[in-house]
Amino acid sequence: DTGVSQDPRHKITKRGQNVTFRCDPISEHNRLYWYRQTLGQGPEFLTYFQNEAQLEKSRLLSDRFSAERPKGSFSTLEIQRTEQGDSAMYLCASLADSYNEQFFGPGTRLTVL
Amino acid sequence: DAKTTQPPSMDCAEGRAANLPCNHSTISGNEYVYWYRQIHSQGPQYIIHGLKNNETNEMASLIITEDRKSSTLILPHATLRDTAVYYCIVRTSANTGNQFYFGTGTSLTVIP
Predict the structure, then answer these.
(1) What letter does residue A85 receive in the DSSP assignment?
(2) N or C: which end of chain A has fewer CB within 10 A?
(3) How are beta strands B9-13 and B106-111 bridged, if at all?
(4) Contact by Cβ (8 Å): A105, B43
(5) Within 10 Å of residue A3's Cβ, how many Cβ atoms?
(6) A45, B99: Cβ pair inside 8 Å?
(7) Which chain B residue's Cα is nearest to A58?
(8) Strand, helix or coil at A97?
């Protein structure tokens, strides 16, 4: 499968715990995006990487959130001290410079108890 | 990026054309119109995009009005698998690196 993959697909955690999600973009795509989606809403932008550089962050990305993309390949999104309001679907998308289409992964559904 | 307005929900009979409207009255000259759809519990899927001219691909047609203030996505022969939330997005070219702003979209239900 040459699409965008995300791991895990589902995560249940207790409030206050730290969680980390992984995204593997399509191999030749140098741009990578993270979005968050809550029930009944469209995806909301969190952050954007071009290669290994994090170029843009939404104000939604509080200090408890951190994202990395070492070596410009896969990316991780970590949430520290999770809160119930963090429960959402976390989506990753990648894009090649020569294309206009963002390819989305299947998402990681986080439930914070 | 300009804001878009879409009806929250629509129904369409299977086999008929589904016409999904989108208003983007504040669109700028360099902003494209994109359409994505999201089937339940999956990531959004690209459908089509355009700047000024009407566009057609194997999935759909995109009709953009001459003043570019609105557009319509047309699914020519809707099937049950087209039941999804459809998002209309306007943004500058992908080469600027900007993210997509998704609204709440239109929930399309194709009825047998």
Answers:
(1) G
(2) N
(3) parallel
(4) yes
(5) 13
(6) yes
(7) B99
(8) coil
Tell if the CB–CB gap between B45 and A100 is shorter than 8 Å.
no
- Which of A41, A43, A95 shows the shortest C-beta gap to B44? A43
- Taking alpha carbons only, the member of A74, A69, A70, A77 closest to residue A26 is A74
Name which of A99, A102, A106 is nearest B100 (Cβ-Cβ): A102
Q: Distance between the two ends of chain B, CA-based, in angstroms?
A: 37
Centre a 10 Å sphere on the Cβ of residue B47 and count the other Cβ atoms it contains: 21
pLDDT of residue A56: 86
Confidence of residue B28 (pLDDT cuts 50, 70, 90): confident
Q: To probe the interface with B, which of A46, A98, A104, A109 has the most B CB atoms within 10 Å?
A: A104
Give the model confidence (pLDDT) of B41-72 as tens digits. Answer: 889 999 999 999 899 999 999 999 999 999 99
SS3 labels along B27-84: CCCCEEEEEEEECCCCCCEEEEEECCCCEECCCCEEEECCCCCEEEEEECCCCHHHCE
The chain A residue lying nearest B44, using CA atoms, is A104
- Which residue from B107, B89, B86, B88 is spatially nearest to B99, judged by alpha carbons? B89
